[in-house]
Amino acid sequence: MSKKLFIKTYGCQMNVYDSARMADVLAPLGYEPTDQVDLADMVILNTCHIRERASEKTFHELGRLKALKAKRNITIAVAGCVAQAEGAEIQRRQPLVDIVVGPQAYHRLPEMVAKISRARGHALDTDFPADSKFDHLPQTDTPVGPTAFLTVQEGCDKFCTFCVVPYTRGAEMSRPVDAILAEARHLADCGAREITLLGQNVNAYHGPDADGQSLGLGDLIRRLSDIDGIERLRYTTSHPRDMADDLILAHRDCEKLMPFLHLPVQSGSDRILAAMNRQHDAASYLNLVDRLRQARPDIALSSDFIVGFPGETDADFQATLDLIRQVGYAQAYSFKYSPRPGTPAELMAAQVPEPVKEERLAKLQALIVSQQLAFNQAQIGKVFGVLFDRRGRREGQWIGRSPYLQSVHAAINGEPTGKIANVKILNAGPNSLTGEIIDTMEPACAA
Ligand code: 5AD
Ligand code: SF4
């Protein structure tokens, strides 16, 4: 009889990718995915450690699973970055956890499940194995929608002073080109039309090709552009320091590469950027934005911002607002600085009081929302391709993605899932656009 697997995913897109791969790894053991936790024989929490609140969600959720475990003997696993950072401490805090598995060790989940069912004990694996998990993962078997993620690079060597990623995800590594091309072809065969290449520092990609030559992300994108069926490519998340000229030119040359780039700057103050160990200043970031706009005039940008980093003064914060005004973002994510265990910034003097962080965050978010609305409204009257991937709330209404990752609503007869259609934008709010179909750019996708 098949067993049911429930996975709850927190945090970034890499975790979404990893969750799908964990389901692939457990499928041969008879585990089928379910979206109902009450039916599960095994529950995996794929966790995020980036900020305190994200971490605490894990323990909150484990508390809720206690009741379920009291009723039925389910297996509970904690995966992801909290697992990596806290390891055995998790089982001490919450003994109902059977398995703790880090982000580089989840290909060994089948052995861990076998071990606990034999011995009824606990299993912990937070190794960074010498051989990559990618060498052991089966081809994906979970349903693939029109938009898919593909991890090409993992880990980070940048050591920004606020960030846990270099500790939880480990050192930077790039997957070989051929493995990525094979996975992309498989995704295309399964119906993916748009692929987002993932990496904590994706633009530091430098994987070997079949001849042993090291390729940068620009060249990888050029090779992926040749795959039939893949119509759109994106990549995230990039570090400003690794935006090589060749990658900037890929934005000019590759039609399939979408004109939208997530390029976190974190702060607009050189003093704070230095304290963050970002290895760039505001001027070099602005210069980079100029070069990107020269290569691809219609490119739009998004960023991450941290407010209230230790030592941040009002003047530093104003410098961040100035930078935001100079760049003009299509969208952005912003966070209050959250001290993370084991990071250098945690120990810095002059931690900023919570109410100051809150006030700055509200100001920054108001500015971003106004830029986002302005960007969305600037699309009114334009026509662009929209990749439809889900039903809207109203009868006959469908939702798709613009090249800029905006949600676009349109009325359509028939089933457009997986099709890219030209849409004229008629209306825009802060979070979505509405439009009308002009024509269908291509025949129905076979998948
Ligand atoms: N506090 C607040 N925000 C953080 N981020 C990373 N670490 C922290 C932290 N300690 C934010 C950064 C990063 C995004 C993924 O999360 O802006 O780009
Ligand atoms: Fe964290 Fe990104 Fe800095 Fe790496 S580059 S340490 S992932 S914020």
Walk me through this protein's architecture.
- This protein is of the alpha/beta class and 447 residues long.
- The protein has three domains: 123 residues, Methylthiotransferase, N-terminal domain (Rossmann fold), CATH 3.40.50; 245 residues, pyruvate-formate lyase- activating enzyme (Alpha-Beta Horseshoe); 55 residues, Beta Barrel (OB fold (Dihydrolipoamide Acetyltransferase, E2P)), CATH 2.40.50.
- Helix content is 34%, strand content 24%.
- The chain has 13 helices and 21 strands.
- The strands form six sheets. The chain has a six-stranded parallel beta sheet, with helices on both faces. Strands 17-18-19-21-20 form a five-stranded mixed beta barrel. A three-stranded parallel beta sheet has the order 7-10-13, sandwiched between helices.
- β5, α5 and β6 form a beta-alpha-beta unit.
- α8 packs parallel to α9 and α12 runs parallel beside α13.
- The longest helix is centred in the last third of the chain and has 24 residues.
- It is globular and about 60 Å long.
- It starts with a strand and ends in a 7-residue tail after the last strand.
- The C terminus is likely disordered.
- Iron/sulfur cluster binds next to α6.
